[in-house]
From TrEMBL:
It comes from Marinilabilia salmonicolor. This is NADH dehydrogenase subunit E /NAD(P)-dependent iron-only hydrogenase diaphorase component iron-sulfur protein. One of its GO terms (molecular function) is 2 iron, 2 sulfur cluster binding. Keywords: 2Fe-2S, Iron, Iron-sulfur, Metal-binding. InterPro entries: NADP_DH_HndA-like, NuoE-like, NuoE_dom, NuoE_N, Thioredoxin-like_sf.
Length: 157
């Protein structure tokens, strides 16, 4: 994977973010949330800077980033699509909805379309089980989605 070049002013912003949390190792998750907000994702280069500033190992930072599904090491699309795979959604056909998104976008779960417009992911539960199956695109929630709805939903973007 190609190295990500982080502009010097952004490196300083990241260091300032760590300092805002007093470089306390116990504040790592808060720092990572802030860093992902700044950059949109957490590539290895950002994790290395955070590890150095917070005085923890890169392995520890990587472990936190990979443990929590909120964090991403890959850039997300302008319109991140998440398909709920919680029990209610799964039983009501979420897998078929996911397959239809994969087919229309020609990407796998975890990937972003070449134009950077959409990224595709799955999550465990949106908390809208009565609307199963549920799809979110950015902050927007779509309920009772069927595979036939996918083309129309994508057409909105």
């Amino acid at each position: 994977m190609a190295k990500v070049k982080i502009p010097e002013n952004k490196v300083q912003e990241l260091k300032d973010l760590c300092a805002k949390f007093n470089n306390e190792p116990g504040e790592l998750i808060n720092v990572l949330h802030g860093a992902q907000g700044m950059f949109g994702y957490l590539p290895a280069e950002i994790q290395e800077i955070v590890a150095e500033e917070m005085n923890v190992s890169v392995a520890h930072v990587y472990g936190v980033v990979t443990f929590y599904s909120f964090f991403s090491m890959l850039p997300k699309g302008k319109h991140p699509i998440s398909i709920c795979m919680g029990t209610a959604c799964y039983v009501r056909g979420a897998e078929k909805v996911l397959d239809e998104f994969k087919r229309h976008l020609d990407v796998k779960v975890g990937e972003t379309t070449p134009d950077g417009k959409f990224s595709l992911s799955c999550l465990r539960c949106v908390g809208a089980c009565g609307l199963a199956p549920v799809v979110t695109i950015g902050e927007r929630v779509y309920g009772r989605v069927s595979p036939e709805d996918v083309k129309g939903i994508l057409g909105e973007y």
